[in-house]
Design goal:
The complex is a heterotrimer of chains A (about 650), B (about 240) and C (about 210). With about 650 residues, chain A is an alpha/beta fold. Chain A has four domains: about 220 residues, Glutaredoxin, CATH 3.40.30; about 220 residues, Rossmann fold, CATH 3.40.50; about 90 residues, Ubiquitin-like (UB roll); about 90 residues, de novo design (two linked rop proteins), CATH 1.20.1440. Chain A has 25 helices and 13 strands. In chain A, strand 11 and strand 12 form a beta hairpin. Chain B is of the alpha+beta class. Chain B folds into two domains: about 80 residues, Ubiquitin-like (UB roll) (Roll); about 130 residues, 2-Layer Sandwich (Alpha-Beta Plaits), CATH 3.30.70. In chain B, the strands form three sheets. In chain B, strands 2-1-5-3-4 form a five-stranded mixed β-sheet, with helices on one face. In chain B, a hairpin with a 5-residue loop joins strand 6 and strand 7. The longest helix of chain B is centred in the middle third of the chain and has 17 residues. Chain C has about 210 residues and is of the alpha+beta class. Chain C is built from seven helices and four strands, in the order H-H-H-H-E-H-H-E-E-E-H. Chain C has a four-stranded mixed β-sheet with strand order 2-1-3-4, with helices on one face. Chain C is elongated and about 50 Å long. The termini of chain C are far apart. Classes of the chains: A alpha/beta (about 650), B alpha+beta (about 240), C alpha+beta (about 210). Chains A and C meet through helix 2, helix 3, helix 14, strand 9 and strand 13 of A and helix 2, helix 4, helix 5 and strand 4 of C.
């Protein structure tokens, strides 16, 4: 596919959208699916089919974030066709007609960032809402919903969004687009189900990775192309040399979103510098170096690999799943750009088998991209080849660790090996291998499209850009959010998350970040800015982005025990400290939890935790003690209160 | 590879010369500096699993296993200090607590690497509770026996069987604390059709987990000093092909 | 020098390998591992795609489990013979990954998520409630082979915690009595397909039972 063809398809898609009188988008990511959005989609489609005169366009779209209120559905009313003089301009710039979902587009926020004195946006732009977002719809609501559209006066007010002032044409918003007047909610039959677009959950977000998810049909390539998809890849292939791309990524300050926070540009340049290597097919041990026939497509020769780590194992984290389910092409595009930059021609996506929908959509996306020449041989008419395969995980948390992940792709037990050598130099079958997380790859296209400076203007000094978090636990609004780095926990938990859920009412006590490798941060420390260094200083980690909010019913010793139990089960068993040490820590926590602990047990607990941190082979063991140490640090009183009194003895 | 660059590093304050493909453990041994080991065995691929041979390296955030870490120019290595000793002792305690190590009734009593290590590191009692597992004993092989309760999962048997004998009868199944050494499809050893009965696994086992039948407590002495020779011979054969 | 190995020593496609390790192997689902068995074809294809290299082992195991619902000794022997892999290595891999099963699962599965978010919202009590009502422990399959009660370390539906997955359909904000009613209904219409009301996509890829 050439850039011109791409533009043409995108423009056609946009035009088709504008021709519809009303557009309806139904979330088809797992969150909403699990509360029945597929039935809602079917019902609405049925209604639309029954009323062809209404000219409705019904789409399944990506995740809109507010999973706790699913199924989410947005409705946008287009102006009558006569007024769409913009159709022509859409040809030139495939940017039009994002439904004005109540999120702040990156552009607006970037603007705010630059002119506000604060280093991050504190409010979203005052944009007129042209789309209505409904929550918790049921199939029974479908006729009512359609009826309201039929009844609604077709009076598009030209209340228009303020022009997205930036010169960059990549704005998610067509400034000339008019918006439909939201029906007065008072007499609206579904008034109870309309989401307040002004809620901080939406307003505070700055979307780069999740950008346009509400507008992208995950199962259609055209839909992604209309959201500027693959522009960056073709731009790179035709106009940029690999070192320039790496330089762009380096200057953007992007860091690994899987948790480690290693500078992405640095990783890319290490792989780019390493010389390609002939894969060791049989891997290692004497006597098993068997070379096989077959695989004509993959001639044996020196190669490098790009791997996307989608083995999202942290319980409580579902960012990667949502990204893969909503915009699989965005990840593929990022991988292809990375492969071009580092000189790789083959890639693997290692996905959890527990995410069937993500796997299915990825598979579909790879097929579509190959068909259109956006993956495979001679991509976009260039001489760059890049093939991607999916590898399924099989239920081992430790495989999120990169050397264990490599072992798993090589068909072995997913046990980590000591580093160095690092995979960047000695990775899959001995070849230089670039391993990045889903979210990291999803950032790449945006950085290429909008430039490193734009990206670096988001976030804090050392942690640039945005981060997607999965809010879960005892908080009113659970779901996915994307916020600029450096935002405070209180803004995330109390404002965006909406504090404690209505039913319970207990006060929020702590937030757990980073899953079993992270720690608990007490409510008193919620002013903490969320970035790699600050969280680490508090004994937690950014991790992949899971945030579990706990209220005062959570007993911290029990929380620590929960995570340690997880680590005991997920320890691979290769190194002694992790295999046995986690179990001994768990025994101590159970003993203390039963009220049988002695003061000496606390000392031993700390000693074992430090041993785990210091002497374990891989990240799992080294960080396994974090939940214990951080709860000991902030909630020591709860441990001490559980200790059996000395006098009893 | 074999004529690698020569590197100078300091181990315990002493200047040592090394080739870059050597490990810190090898360099230390060449220079007469003792580093305790358990899963490592000359002649087998190192895995860095037992964590007994941890050494401190200036600038590294945490200690690294000497058996798999390669020297770098100017590296400063510390092989012994109170902190390292404490860590090694604790790791060994964890290992002892994991299995059932009752020396008095063990065939290798007095000739056991684990026992020797405990003596060296001064582990005379356990601070952590013993887990007392009840793992299966496999006595199905006509000449040898396997008592998994004495296994420390060093995987020497797995490696010697795969790398030297080429049979790969042994491997590890499960994970974490449930991990254990198995033969073929977790069959009784005596029924494992891939086993050649060479007995190398028994000789390399550092504890009494693998033993020759018919020996009573303290009678079994392991012989594995010939291993490096086997490795060298094998390499020579392969090169000659 | 070829490995002195092992794997090829037994003919792969016989049922003689039916060791006591494979209980409940009814005649209808006893795998045969050759071209005569349609279900083996995807496995063969998976191995071929990876050039019969050891690297394709996990892909092949996924294919076996998709075809047969579990991985038995005969399958492992067949894989070992075709890919020239030692049996112990295959067994080690299968047992390392919790996703693979050595025994057949029940006709229906009920997976209770025990991830953090679900735990915070009472997944342990939910599991107890289901376990009590169904009179089976987590990890067990009912004696009649009807239902397997399993747990997961996180199904990624944390936004709807607590989550339960019944026959691949995720149920958000699950509640003990409702789940038990649903399981009872499964029991009632045994031979029917579980409700086609799918929260899962069209089963094209048919991947991965949770």
């Amino acid at each position: 596919m050439t850039p011109e063809e791409l533009q043409r398809i995108a423009a056609e898609e946009l035009q088709a959208r504008q021709h519809a009188r009303h557009r309806i988008g139904v979330c088809t990511a797992s969150g909403c699916l699990s509360c029945g959005s597929r039935e809602v989609l079917t019902a609405i489609k049925q209604e639309a089919a029954d009323k062809p005169e209404m000219n409705l366009r019904v789409e399944g779209v990506g995740c809109m974030g507010l999973c706790s209120r699913g199924p989410l559905v947005w409705v946008q009313t287009n102006p009558p066709p006569t007024e769409t003089s913009t159709a022509a301009s859409a040809d030139a710039s495939p940017t039009a007609s994002a439904p004005n979902l109540p999120d702040a587009s990156p552009d607006d926020s970037a603007d705010i960032t630059t002119d506000a004195s604060s280093d991050r946006p504190t409010g979203a732009s005052a944009r007129a809402e042209s789309a209505l977002l409904y929550k918790q719809l049921t199939p029974d609501d479908a006729p009512t919903l359609i009826a309201t559209l039929a009844a609604a006066p077709a009076s598009p007010t030209a209340a228009a969004a303020p022009p997205a002032t930036t010169a960059e044409q990549t704005s998610a918003q067509d400034s000339t687009q008019t918006s439909a007047q939201a029906p007065a909610t008072g007499d609206h039959p579904l008034a109870q189900k309309i989401c307040d677009p002004a809620m901080p959950f939406f307003k505070r977000q700055v979307k780069v990775v999740l950008d346009q998810f509400e507008n992208i049909d995950p199962e259609r390539l055209e839909s992604y192309l209309a959201a500027d998809g693959y522009l960056a890849l073709l731009d790179c292939l035709h106009h940029r040399r690999p070192p320039e791309i790496i330089d762009e990524i380096t200057r953007s300050g992007l860091r690994g979103r899987g948790g480690g926070g290693y500078p992405t540009g640095l990783k890319w340049s290490t792989v780019a510098k390493a010389s390609a290597f002939v894969p060791q097919a049989g891997q290692g041990h004497a006597g098993s170096g068997r070379q096989s026939a077959g695989e004509a497509e993959r001639p044996d020769g020196p190669r490098k690999y790009v791997i996307c780590n989608a083995d999202e194992g942290d319980p409580g984290a579902f960012m990667d799943r949502s990204v893969l389910e909503s915009a699989p092409h965005r990840v593929l595009e990022g991988m292809a750009i990375a492969a071009y930059a580092v000189g790789a021609d083959f890639g693997y996506i290692y996905v959890r088998a527990e995410y069937p929908l993500a796997v299915e959509r990825l598979r579909k996306a790879i097929g579509q991209a190959e068909k259109q020449g956006l993956l495979g041989r001679n991509i976009g008419g260039s001489d760059f080849n890049f093939q991607v395969e999916i590898r399924l995980g099989a239920g081992a948390f430790v495989c999120g660790e990169e050397t264990a992940l490599l072992a798993s792709i090589e068909g072995r037990r997913g046990q980590p090996r000591p580093r160095p050598p690092y995979p960047a130099e000695h990775g899959l079958w001995g070849c230089p291998t670039l391993i990045n997380n889903v979210e990291t790859f999803a950032n790449v296209a945006a950085i290429i499209n909008r430039g490193a400076d734009w990206f670096a203007s988001l976030g804090t000094d050392k942690s640039k850009g945005t981060k997607v978090f999965a809010l879960a636990g005892k908080v009113a609004n659970t779901g996915l959010i994307e916020v600029p780095m450096g935002i405070s926990l209180t803004e995330i938990v109390n404002e965006m998350g909406g504090g404690t859920p209505d039913e319970a009412g207990g006060a929020i006590k702590a937030v757990q970040t980073g899953g079993p490798s992270g720690g608990c941060i007490p409510a008193a420390h919620f002013n903490l800015p969320v970035d790699y260094e600050s969280l680490q200083a508090e004994g937690s980690i950014m991790g992949s982005g899971g945030m579990i909010i706990m209220d005062d019913t959570a007993a911290m010793v029990d929380v620590a025990r929960f995570f340690m139990e997880f680590c005991v089960e997920e320890s691979c068993g290769k190194c002694t400290p992790c295999r046995v040490g986690t179990k001994q820590v768990l025994l101590l926590l159970e003993k203390i939890g039963r009220g049988e602990g002695r003061p000496a047990d606390l000392t031993q607990l700390e000693e074992l935790c430090h041993l785990l941190q210091q002497t374990s082979l891989c990240g799992l063991g080294q960080s396994a003690a974090n939940p214990v140490l951080s709860t000991l640090r902030f909630f020591r009183r709860e441990y001490v209160e559980l200790l059996a009194g000395e006098e009893e003895a | 590879m074999s004529g690698g660059r020569v590197i100078t590093l300091q181990i315990d304050g002493r200047d040592c010369g090394a080739r870059e493909e050597q490990t810190i453990l090898e360099v230390a041994r060449e220079n007469g500096i003792y580093i305790p080991t358990l899963c490592h065995l000359n002649g087998l691929h190192p895995v860095g699993g037992c964590r007994i041979c941890l050494v401190e390296i200036a600038g590294a955030p945490r200690p690294l296993p000497a058996c798999v870490t390669h020297p770098v120019e100017g590296m400063q290595v510390t092989t012994d200090n109170p902190e390292l000793r404490r860590q090694r002792r604790l790791i060994l305690e964890l290992m002892l607590a994991e299995g059932n190590h009752i020396c008095a009734v063990c065939v290798v009593n007095g000739h056991c690497e684990l026992q020797e290590l405990a003596l060296q590191l001064g582990v005379d009692h356990l601070e952590v509770p013993a887990l007392y597992p009840s793992r299966e004993v496999d006595a199905s092989h006509p000449r040898f026996g396997l008592d998994r309760n004495r296994c420390v999962l060093c995987t020497r048997c797995v490696r010697v069987c795969g790398e030297i004998e080429g049979a790969h009868t042994w491997d590890v199944m499960g994970r974490g604390l449930q991990a254990m050494v198995i033969s073929d499809l977790n069959q009784p050893w005596g029924e494992a059709e891939s086993c050649t009965g060479c007995g190398k696994c028994v000789q390399v086992c550092p504890t009494g987990a693998l033993f020759e039948k018919g020996k009573s407590a303290g009678e079994m002495v392991k012989r594995h000093l010939h291993l490096p020779l086997l490795t060298a011979m094998r390499r020579e054969e392969e090169a000659g092909e | 020098m070829p490995p002195a190995a092992s794997a090829s020593s037994g003919p792969a496609d016989t049922d003689q390998a039916a060791t006591p390790n494979i209980p409940q192997c009814t005649p209808s689902n006893t795998p045969k591992h050759d071209a005569s068995d349609k279900r083996w074809r995807p496995v063969e294809a998976a191995m071929r795609r990876n050039g019969y290299r050891p690297g394709g082992l996990i892909e092949a195991l996924h294919a076996v489990q998709r075809s047969y619902g579990y991985i038995d000794d005969a399958s492992m022997r067949a894989l070992g013979a075709t890919m020239q892999l030692p049996l112990s290595k295959i067994y080690g891999v299968v047992t390392f990954y919790h996703f693979f099963h050595l025994k057949p699962k029940g006709r229906h599965t009920c997976v209770v998520c025990l991830g953090t978010a679900c735990y915070i919202k009472g997944a342990d009590r939910l599991l107890q409630a289901i376990s009590r009502e169904q009179q089976m422990q987590p990890g067990e399959t009912s004696a009649d082979g009807r239902l397997s009660l399993l747990t997961a370390r996180c199904v990624g539906s944390c936004g709807q915690a607590p989550a339960v997955v019944i026959d691949d359909l995720v149920q958000g904000q699950a509640e003990g009595s409702a789940i038990n009613r649903q399981l009872a209904r499964l029991n009632g219409r045994e031979e029917e397909r579980p409700a086609a009301t799918a929260t899962k996509g069209p089963p094209a890829a048919g991947e991965a039972r949770t």
